[in-house]
Amino acid sequence: MSVKEKVLEIMKAEGRPLSAGEVEKLSGLDRKEIDNAFKELKKENAIVSPVRCKWEPANK
Questions:
Q1: Cα Rg, the chain, nearest whole Å
Q2: What is the DSSP letter of 18?
Q3: Which of 16, 25, 56, 59 has its CB surrounded by the most CB atoms within 10 Å?
Q4: What is this structure's pTM?
Q5: What CATH number is associated with residue 42?
Q6: Is residue 60 one of the residues assigned to a domain?
Q7: What are phi and psi of 19, to 5 degrees?
Q8: C-alpha closest to that of 19 among 33, 9, 4, 34
Q9: Domain count, the chain
Q10: Parent domain of 28
């Protein structure tokens, strides 16, 4: 499973907008990997930001 897939899976499981720091705590992944995954997911429009600095899957 790629980092992007893992990040999306965690976001869907939590069911609420998450910051990169929260994803880091929940996943144990490196923060730089999470930041890169967020960047790619934003480009793909796979995640949206309903609240400043927090993200959730675009298609819940």
A1: 10
A2: B
A3: 56
A4: 0.88
A5: 1.10.10
A6: no
A7: -90, 170
A8: 34
A9: 1
A10: 3-55
